[in-house]
Amino acid sequence: MDTKILQKLGLDEKEIQVYLSLLIIGSTTASKVSKETNIDRATCYRYLDSLIHKGLVSHVIQNNIKYFQAAHPEKILKDLKEKENEFEKILPELINLSNLPKEETTAEVYKGKDGLKTVLREILRNKQDHLVLGEEGHFHDLLPIFFQQFVNECKRNKIREKILCTRGVFDKVKKYDYEYSTIKKLSSEISLPTTTLIYENKIVILNWQSPYNAIVISNKNLSITYRNYFDLLWKMAN
Fold this sequence. Notes:
Blueprint: H1 4-8, H2 13-25, H3 30-37, H4 41-53, E1 57-62, E2 65-70, H5 73-98, E3 106-111, H6 112-125, E4 130-133, H7 138-142, H8 144-156, E5 161-166, H9 170-174, E6 181-186, E7 194-199, E8 202-207, E9 213-218, H10 220-236
Parallel strand pairs: 4-5, 5-6
Antiparallel strand pairs: 1-2, 3-9, 4-7, 7-8, 8-9
């Protein structure tokens, strides 16, 4: 089982051990859980209390003995859906807040592979035509499944893109071309270890090397400058 999914729900490794142990054993005492998980009894109680507060464990007292019971996994899904429904109620207000006038220039940094995905999903969500400077195949190599999803969504939503890559990787990048994508190659003397995306008034710099990050800069004048630079290179490319 991939327990990392449970970690994303806010559980640490020990909590997961305790919860899974209860799922397997059923209603039982803290001593039994402690024995099954090799977690000392006092610490085990602490994790059980934490899981109770999170709604993942309940307890009853029988003959002055406390028995613990794991919540059914479907309850977790139900709770998540309820939270999603609650969030949807305030989503319009949050969107309105995000659309308030901003300072002329903003910069955001997103970290890790999930950060890269977050930035790229914005393009899909807003169906943004975009320019790509430095597509060297890193996207496909690092996030192959998400890459294919991204291309499929671009196709489905007819998102147009222009891509500039170096001569050495042109054939590799061309394989993933689609109807609304145009690719040109630059001189092999040019090195492009990062990728720059340009769309709307935004410039996105994607670093494909560990620890992976994306920098999103919002500024109209900077965007125009980068577009002009891209257009110049586009004319020079083959």
